[in-house]
């Protein structure tokens, strides 16, 4: 873990840039090029391992963004990818081989579940899924050929928080590499390497970009792991375009102020929903009734801008509520300045086995909100209007409350 010279808000703006006085552009230039010219063949050989050879290997604009991310996370190195799933799949593929075994919590993003349960077995790699905070179940699932312990915190969409201290202690004892999808947290709310995690993964499409206009994946952590992953990324070709990396850098500069506002808005909305008569359950880690409240208070500065809640009635009722909202745009994804709403069983977890959904606690009545930076009063008013459709439906059917 790297020592931090400045606080998070300052690191978000200045990243890994030199503070020495100089003449030059304030914003990092876009090296919009696929290849780089050299003076002779010896220079060509020297350029090959650098970011001035061929953009599939690296690019100066991408390097600037990677250094900014490593600075924020307090890690040795970082890599950019074409999407969050590219970051996760490439990283895991680089760290395991045929015959290896992975332990993963079952309460993770649906696309990662499909990758671990449907695609990796074709390569001779098995995964055992365990309950999110059952450390004994994690320990019991480890085999002699287990290489990787993969977690997500907070989780999608139930917003569970994993006890990183316990996970890393177990992994060190058993000689395992730990990887975490920390998309929901961001380094503003939690820096997993400070708790001993080896590799931190993000869908940079979300909070890092912050404006729903780029696709981005991030892997950051120990240099030896990053170098191993870099070799595979170069082969698979899932690198990030330098223009998108420029937009990512611009988004990172406001990451801290955006996340702080989203933390505040989401907590206020979670408190409002927890008191609403048509809401049966609210999932947000900084509500005192949340099962992971104590863990969240210990290891997070804020709980992030994502929450989910379950409404009284059926899956159709949940859809009616979501469709009645205006300020919450009906769209997948999360983490941007605009507030979004989605139904997990119809989007992120659409192809997941119903029995697994039940174990994860994902129901048809669940609505997920990605809270943006709008005024919280306006967002709450929009939710009040949306939830009112449940009362009107019951009145239409002649059912008394």
Low-pLDDT segments: none
DSSP strand tally = 12
Beta-strand portion reads 5-15%
Instruction: Report on the biggest sheet.
Output: 7 strands, mixed
**What integer value in Å does the Rg equal?**
22 Å
Order of helices and strands: HHHEHEHEHEHEHEEHHHEHEHEEHEH
Estimated helix fraction:
40-55%
* Structural class estimated from helices and strands: alpha/beta
Main-sheet strand order equals 1-7-6-5-4-2-3
How would you sum up the global shape?
globular
The number of helical elements comes to: 15
- What distance separates the N and C termini? 55 Å
Please characterize this protein's 3D structure:
The protein has 401 residues and is an alpha/beta fold. Helices cover 41% and strands 14% of the residues. The strands form 2 sheets. It has a 7-stranded mixed beta sheet with strand order 1-7-6-5-4-2-3, sandwiched between helices. The longest helix has 21 residues. It is globular, with a radius of gyration of 22 Å.
Summarize the structure.
Helices cover 41% and strands 14% of the residues. The chain is α/β, with parallel strands linked by helices and 401 residues long.
Question: How would you summarize the topology of this molecule?
Answer:
Layout: H1 8-14, H2 41-47, H3 60-73, E1 77-81, H4 84-95, E2 101-105, H5 110-119, E3 126-130, H6 135-141, E4 146-152, H7 164-174, E5 177-181, H8 186-189, E6 199-203, E7 217-221, H9 223-236, H10 242-253, H11 255-274, E8 279-283, H12 293-299, E9 306-311, H13 315-324, E10 329-330, E11 340-342, H14 354-360, E12 366-370, H15 376-396
Parallel strand pairs: 2-3, 2-4, 4-5, 5-6, 10-11
Antiparallel strand pairs: 1-7, 6-7, 8-9, 9-12, 11-12
